[in-house]
Amino acid sequence: MNIGLDMMGGDFAPIEAVKGVKQYLLEQNFEGLSLILFGDEPQLTALLIEYDVPKDKYKVVATTQIIDMNEHPTKALKEKTNSSISVGFQYLATGKIDAFISAGNTGAMLVGAMFSLKTVEGVLRPTISSVIPKQDGSTGLLLDVGLNADCKPEQLNQFAVMGSVFSKYIFGVDDPKVGLINVGEEEGKGNILAQAAYPLLKENSAINFVGNVEGRDVFNDKADVMVCEGFTGNVILKLAESVYDIAQNQKVDNPYLNRFNFEIYGGTPVLGVEKPVIIGHGISHATAFSNMVDVAVKMVNTDVLGKVKEAIQKI
Amino acid sequence: MNIGLDMMGGDFAPIEAVKGVKQYLLEQNFEGLSLILFGDEPQLTALLIEYDVPKDKYKVVATTQIIDMNEHPTKALKEKTNSSISVGFQYLATGKIDAFISAGNTGAMLVGAMFSLKTVEGVLRPTISSVIPKQDGSTGLLLDVGLNADCKPEQLNQFAVMGSVFSKYIFGVDDPKVGLINVGEEEGKGNILAQAAYPLLKENSAINFVGNVEGRDVFNDKADVMVCEGFTGNVILKLAESVYDIAQNQKVDNPYLNRFNFEIYGGTPVLGVEKPVIIGHGISHATAFSNMVDVAVKMVNTDVLGKVKEAIQKI
């Protein structure tokens, strides 16, 4: 298995990316894994030696350009054809790697995923999700968190299917409970979109729909998979991220609130494209990179995107 | 000034309502105030004597019915014409009281406000807001928080005006900064609604528009007044409420997180109707009732709804 990693993406690249690779190999080295590292060769080689990363586990692919965090995604991908992100997607599209990871320019990663990869047959639009730390210790999934600011009810129904498959195969949740983010508990509540999505979710036999979930239910055990359009989802995610910052500012050290440090989850996978793409937070440190490799390995090993494809076609 | 209070609404009525009245009169008694208390006369009279509430400050209006928390609002208001909520709105509509407060059935309060009172001239739709505790110690305002799940851009622009007036006159914020809840910082970001609302807010000379605010900005000082449709606003509010519950569950005792106890803010005023209506949380205790009286007194004293009317007509 070849996992591709953009070593130049993120605020602390390439050093934290190198440390992340080292951490992954130390902690949860997967036997058949080869890491394909995209980036500035002299810089990377020096760091990989410095951090004593086993040579048989990686291969450096030299790239000469970097897409900065604030560059226009489409323009940058078109012009910087030898950037770590562009080359990574070329490798992914042509099968030279099985998954691609970057903590770089999120827009460029999304555009790269959408335009260099095929959308899974039957999927209306790919989606991005976020891990949600649940109070009972389990791991929830919220989607969409920003790729689709306006949605049709059918999209929410597909998010439910894709999220359920991901929750099952990557988080190991058996028969994940799916909730529709809404403003009240009862059927019939909500805006036009939520009202229209509810019956689709209710009739969808591919998922375990448990009804509406409210803002107060995001962190409880009412649902494992929570679906909404990307506007509300993005606001929820960024608000949840800020809860961790608040706890830090307030010098509150609490095991549950510490799980709001979204860096520990690594990154967010793009669901609905044919190959695994994982987008990391700009502030990713070693643990985030290590976790992204871990999720990528799991996604390849479980063929979760193949499972998404099967499930979508059953709706 | 006559402030009307539904003594039978809320999970802990009438005893907490009586205690709240007592608390208000002890702590911030306003000279010209007369409290008009709607509810079961024998029960109230006994409690008012028991809690030693000064007789010259209140008058009990006997009502014989109660609208329960789970009753259908429109049906209940129509059938229970002698309920504390119905009679309260009759008093408000006919000028016998200057403001009406209840921690009872929220739907019935909204229906009552919308149908027994006139909408302020020029207001497309009334709105409900929520106090947001800011990290810098100041008090933010978020609106709409659930009355209008789907909105037009013009409504968001009006929420901005109504919220600014409320923030200025009730919270004492000078020239409140208005932010549009969105998924990114830059103009042009967002769903169709946010994209269309941005230019209206930018051109609105009646407000101090500071641009987009994201989920991570809800609790920081980027904006004093934050506007969105009621779907996202309701999810934000209920999520914020759950942060307090989480802190309690986790036994975290932190002064800032304690401000997420929304009960301390009393209730949410309906903005855009011609007279002050304040809706309390079902779980309201004495402090919440006391604070609701305080806000009602301020709303009448400052003629905040008259100011809303003037401001709306300037858009």
Walk me through the structure.
The structure is a homodimer of 315-residue chains. Chain A has 315 residues and is an alpha/beta fold. Chain A folds into two domains: 1-123 and 272-304, Isopropylmalate Dehydrogenase, CATH 3.40.718.10; 124-262, Isopropylmalate Dehydrogenase (3-Layer(aba) Sandwich), CATH 3.40.718. Helix content of chain A is 42%, strand content 17%. In chain A, strands 3-2-1-4-11-10-5-6-9-7-8 form an eleven-stranded mixed sheet, sandwiched between helices. In chain A, strand 7, helix 7 and strand 8 form a beta-alpha-beta unit. In chain A, helix 6 (153-170) crosses helix 7. The longest helix of chain A has 20 residues, at 230-249. Chain A is globular. The two termini of chain A are 31 Å apart. The mean pLDDT of chain A is 95. Chain A binds chain B through residues 135, 146, 149-150, 181, 183, 190-192, 194, 214-220, 228-232, 234-243, 245-246, 249-250, 252, 254, 256-257, and chain B through 135, 146, 149-150, 181, 183, 190-192, 194, 214-220, 228-232, 234-243, 245-246, 249-250, 252, 254, 256-257.
List keywords for this structure.
eleven-stranded mixed beta sheet; 315 residues; homodimer; alpha/beta; Isopropylmalate Dehydrogenase; 11 helices
